[in-house]
Amino acid sequence: MTDLFHSLRDAPVSAWIGIVIVGIYTILAIGAPVLAPYPEAASIGSQYQPWAAPHYLGTDALGRDVMSRLIYGARNTVGIALLTTALAFAMGATLGLLAATLGGWFDAVSARVVDVLMAIPALIFALLILTITGTSVLALVLVIAVLDSTRVYRLSRAVAQGILTMDYIEVARMRGEGLWWLIRKEVLPNAAAPMIAEFGLRFCFVFLFISALSFLGLGIQPPTADWGGMVRESAKLIGFANFATWQTATFGLAPLLPAGAIALLTIGVNLIVDWVLHLSSGLRE
């Protein structure tokens, strides 16, 4: 805890910007029912109302409050992306660490299976599977987690193989330590920094991937609020935008709200990841 406090105290401005951004998104995701002025799917006005009280970001095609749906989108999009990333890491890191530690036929077979999966374009593979299985949240999480676990497997296996060549690993093996002891006590602590940084990067990729699928109509389904789906729903308003008046100018800005929310969170997470990588490199300002 002390080391964490000192690291945060000495963190650069860019890292603090990332922490603040991620913190705000976390508060919005957790407190969405309290912070959102209206329910997620409630039609509370006429369609395409301008940005004015009580709908400060207007309404959509069904008369739903855009601000409320943006806030709920933080819970849905970010929450599902976080769950998917955690599942991908649980599968990929476990398999990668086992493959590096056991070696032999297990390492060879698992590596070839992962190579085959990585050879297939992820978006095409996801579209194919989701078309067959349907677009439920469970199917979405499982498909993306399996696809992303291949990247986690490659990193965890490579990092573990480098650690397993160290002298202290050989000493532990000579003492008779078992497989799980080696992984828990020696490999994982030394692989923590790059794995934490990779978790942040994977989260960004999963987050953007889910948004892309929602934009294509195969991600999170309506009436659930989702930023990728909101971009798709409001994209047609760009053709009706007229910047001569504020009321018509908001039509062109409507798709930028969920797109901006996606971009801002991606930037915030990457700023934190850069800081974590800097700490793990051992470099100092």
Name some characteristics of this structure.
mainly alpha; 285 residues; elongated; MetI-like fold
Poorly predicted runs of 5 or more residues: none
CATH topology: MetI-like fold
- Strand runs, count: 0
Query: Major beta sheet, specifics?
Result: none
Q: How many structural domains can be distinguished in the coordinates? A: 1
**Secondary-structure element series:** HHHHHHHHHHHH
Proportion of residues in extended strands: under 5%
What is the CATH homology-level superfamily? MetI-like
Structural class: mainly alpha
Q: Choose one word for the global shape.
A: elongated
Instruction: Output the CATH class name.
Output: Mainly Alpha
Annotated CATH architecture: Orthogonal Bundle
Helical content class: over 70%
End-to-end distance, in Å?
22 Å
User: What gyration radius follows from the Cα positions, in whole Å?
Assistant: 22 Å
For the residues shown, what is the average pLDDT? Answer: 82
Question: Which quaternary structure do these chains form?
Answer: single chain
What is the count of helical runs? 12
